[in-house]
Amino acid sequence: MRQEQVQQAQQGDETQELATVRRILQAHENEPGALLPILHDVQDALGHIPANAVPVIAEAQNLSRAEVHGVVTYYHHFRSAPAGRHVIQICRAEACQSMGADALLAHAELRLGCSAHGTTKDGAFTLEPAFCLGLCASSPAMTLDDQPHARVTPRTFDALLAQVAP
Length: 166
Fold this sequence. Notes:
Blueprint: H1 2-27, H2 35-46, H3 54-61, H4 65-74, E1 86-91, H5 94-98, H6 101-112, E2 118-119, E3 125-130, E4 142-144, E5 147-149, H7 154-164
Parallel strand pairs: 1-3
Antiparallel strand pairs: 1-4, 2-3, 4-5
């Protein structure tokens, strides 16, 4: 019985997700070339682009599923799975790399217990690489829940985590 209830809940979630996607598609139906705005709206509404939304979006935009999937996977902003409660982005651009971003990323992976593009086992943090956060003169840079932080050291990183950790 329990497994049946879980399946019904998952189906309900998928139905709600697709209803949200359809509302977003309807809002953009007369916009030529609306794929990126649609994907941004879906990501904002659901926190990710569900795999079952890709064919629905593709059909509405007269694109192939591969084209939509290619856009979702090309842009680092889009996720195909829900993120953790807190999202950390560490800049991987050249200026940040030259100032220690590689060591910062290695420290973050060790501290969180997950690799880049991963989420901690408890779902608290998602660690993502970013390619230029616009803080080149103050590198290495990172964001925590979209808030930028400059000249980040491993010690600074740990202090920022402590502020939001449960």
